Automatic annotation (TrEMBL):
Listed name of the protein: ABC transporter, ATP-binding protein
Molecular functions per Gene Ontology: ABC-type oligopeptide transporter activity; ATP binding; ATP hydrolysis activity
Domain ABC transporter: 9-87
Pfam families: ABC_tran
Entries under InterPro entries matching the protein: ABC_transporter-like_ATP-bd, P-loop_NTPase, Type_1_exporter
Species name: human gut metagenome
Record key words, sorted: ATP-binding, Nucleotide-binding
Amino acid sequence: QDFRLFAFSIRENVTAFQDKKDDLEEIYKITGIKNWIENLKEKDSTYIYKMFVENGVEPSGGQAQKLAIARALYKNAPIVVLDEPTAALDPISEYEVYNKFDKLVHGKTAIYISHRLSSCRFCDKIMVFENGSIVEEGSHKELMKNTNGLYFYMYNTQAKQYY
């Protein structure tokens, strides 16, 4: 949710100058920025912003968020914390990120923070907080069985916006 991009190249923003992995292209693909990068004249050597170069790019909110996700994945840390990672994405991009989420965090512990409960369906375990305390926990399927629960209420309240 809160991230910064710097007036460096796309590659430098993702790798944080730790250019050590061969799977950078795969990370671009998984996060959905590969096509955007390939359409840029200088590919991932293109600078973000025009602060230091005239031909820099101004990424959209969604592109910037995907770059931040790519950076988090590139670190290859055993724990990944994603706080509202799709907040700036359009519905199609959001759907694509959710469908790739397992591949994004494969073999890692992922903590995913979201107020969009439809995005929690793929999580192994969901913890529902109220006033700073955990009031429910379980899978989406388990939590939806509790028709008196907060998760059930909030999920259905959000779902009503779509019908």
